[in-house]
């Protein structure tokens, strides 16, 4: 269950910068899509497509009541005969305009052709976010960026889990007297993973 996994990840990373850093980045993502409703475009590199993040953002959009978080996955190898949700090619980035958000996920340096399209999207008014390994050119174009260094206890997949969960957090107020299911699950995970109380 993702809520439990995210709670465990946050516990492992407690005391580091990552819980706060991923929440800040997720806040930038959420604020970039909410006021405009222009859409969220999600793209990786030719070698890496962020399927995992796309799926988590679709779930978060549904659970949080924030449909703006549902991304359009832009694919390098999209073909016209693919199902509609998998047939969006790089030309969609070229068509990006003001009010839209482009999230680039790149575990390695993005290729020049992708960087050129990202640059054009920014010039056209799109908000650019980068979740990557710290590429200078991509960060220079991004309005908000989060670099994930190679560390034993951390990788891009882990950070994507934290970002997607944080993007959906607290998007809707809980009904009076009731906690949202995700809040309850997170609290349960915290209780299950916390050390037993000390007896005096």
Structural features, described:
This protein is α/β, with parallel strands linked by helices. Helix content is 44%, strand content 12%. The protein has a single domain (2-193), classed as Glucose-6-phosphate isomerase like protein, domain 1 (Rossmann fold, 3-Layer(aba) Sandwich). Helix 2 crosses helix 7. The longest helix is centred in the N-terminal third of the chain and has 16 residues, at 18-33. The model is unreliable at 172-179 (pLDDT under 50).
Topology:
Layout: H1 2-12, H2 18-33, E1 40-43, H3 51-64, E2 71-74, H4 91-94, E3 101-106, H5 112-123, E4 127-132, H6 136-141, E5 144-147, H7 156-168, H8 181-193
Parallel strand pairs: 1-2, 1-3, 3-4, 4-5
Helix pairs in contact: 1-7, 1-8, 2-7, 3-7
Main β-sheet description: 5 strands, parallel
Q: What series of H and E elements makes up the topology?
A: HHEHEHEHEHEHH
The coarse overall form would be globular
What CATH calls the topology is Rossmann fold
Q: What is the domain total for the residues? A: 1
Side by side, the strands of the main sheet go: 2-1-3-4-5
Q: Helical element count?
A: 8
- CATH architectural label: 3-Layer(aba) Sandwich
* Cα-atom radius of gyration: 18 Å
For this structure, what is the CATH class? Alpha Beta
